[in-house]
């Protein structure tokens, strides 16, 4: 059974990461290697039609760029995923569960040279003995390959949601619908679900900081609405918990 990794995000939210298995990582590597090989062969065939003075030079330069830039380009542009990782639903994240940056991607892919010597032995041994299956490149860059899972919309009971009149307005609902994206919704859900595990002081500061942001965005001046109540109320709206006004039959 794979060991789950628990990390704290910069917002002090406890995040559970599931390290990718070695089998799926290997197949993702094979898919990416096949794409790299196919691309370099295509470059060589195109260069063969060019004049001898520039064809070989162009082929070597372009192939070198593909070989070393493929992983870095996709990991940064696709939020930690190469085509092979995307097919197998894997993702590279940094040690705090955040997206990798350019420097981390460069480090982990440059150190790959040590991982494949001899014949992939060092990297395989390192991944076998590391609890999170990290190879040398991951250890050097403080990264981890994790299995990507679809975030479930939490149940109302799990969020401990209450209904707040100051949030049940058409303006707030439009804001939630059009301006709160998937990642922001996941943050709201994570904060609500992680709240019971936080110390009282840290919990208060976290909810007040996040609640203060939305209080300013929405122009809410309700003195009875705490930061935690505001965050939980927005999380409820994101989860689709919307009370429609009850219509009273008109007397005739």
What's the structural blueprint in terms of helices and strands?
Elements: E1 5-8, E2 14-17, H1 22-47, H2 55-77, H3 83-87, E3 90-94, H4 102-110, H5 112-115, H6 121-129, H7 136-141, E4 143-147, H8 156-159, H9 170-179, H10 182-194, H11 200-218, H12 227-238
Antiparallel strand pairs: 1-2, 3-4
Task: Give a concise summary.
With 252 residues, the chain is mainly alpha-helical. It has helices at residues 22-47, 55-77, 83-87, 102-110, 112-115, 121-129, 136-141, 156-159, 170-179, 182-194, 200-218, 227-238, and strands at residues 5-8, 14-17, 90-94, 143-147.
Structure, explained:
With 252 residues, the chain is mainly α. The protein has two domains: 143 residues, no CATH class; 83 residues, no CATH class. It contains twelve helices and four strands; from the N terminus they run E-E-H-H-H-E-H-H-H-H-E-H-H-H-H-H. It has a two-stranded antiparallel ribbon. It has a two-stranded antiparallel sheet with strand order 3-4. The longest helix is centred in the N-terminal third of the chain and has 26 residues.
- Contiguous low-pLDDT stretches (5 residues minimum) are 8-14, 150-162, 241-252
Q: Share of helix among residues?
A: 55-70%
The beta-strand count equals 4
**Helix count, DSSP H or I runs of 4 or more residues:** 12
**Quick check: average pLDDT?**
78
Share of β-strand residues = 5-15%
Report how far apart the termini are. 68 Å
Largest sheet: 2 strands, antiparallel
Q: What Rg, in angstroms, do the CA atoms define?
A: 25 Å
Net shape: elongated
Biggest sheet strand line-up: 1-2
* H/E element sequence: EEHHHEHHHHEHHHHH
Q: Which secondary-structure class do the elements indicate?
A: mainly alpha
């Amino acid at each position: 059974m794979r060991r789950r990794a628990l990390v704290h995000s910069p917002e002090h939210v406890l995040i559970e990461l599931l390290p990718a298995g070695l089998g799926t990582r290997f197949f993702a590597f094979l898919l990416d290697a096949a794409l790299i090989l196919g691309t370099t062969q295509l470059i060589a065939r195109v260069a063969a039609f060019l004049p001898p003075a520039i064809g070989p030079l162009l082929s070597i330069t372009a192939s070198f760029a593909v070989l070393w830039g493929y992983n870095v380009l996709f990991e940064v542009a696709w939020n930690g995923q190469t085509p092979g990782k995307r097919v197998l639903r894997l993702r590279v994240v940094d040690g705090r569960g955040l997206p990798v940056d350019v420097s981390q991607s460069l480090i982990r892919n440059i150190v790959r040279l040590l991982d494949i010597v001899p014949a992939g032995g060092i990297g395989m041994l390192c991944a076998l003995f590391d609890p999170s299956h990290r190879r040398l490149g991951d250890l050097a860059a403080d990264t981890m390959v994790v299995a990507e899972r679809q975030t479930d919309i939490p149940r109302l009971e799990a969020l401990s949601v209450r209904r707040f009149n100051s949030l049940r307005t058409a303006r707030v609902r439009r804001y939630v619908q059009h301006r709160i994206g998937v990642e922001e919704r996941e943050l709201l859900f994570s904060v609500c679900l992680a709240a019971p595990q936080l110390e009282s002081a840290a919990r208060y500061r976290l909810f007040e900081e996040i609640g203060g942001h939305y209080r300013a965005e929405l122009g809410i001046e309700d003195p009875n609405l705490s930061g935690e109540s505001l965050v939980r109320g927005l999380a409820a709206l994101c989860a689709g918990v919307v009370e429609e006004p009850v219509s009273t039959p008109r007397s005739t």
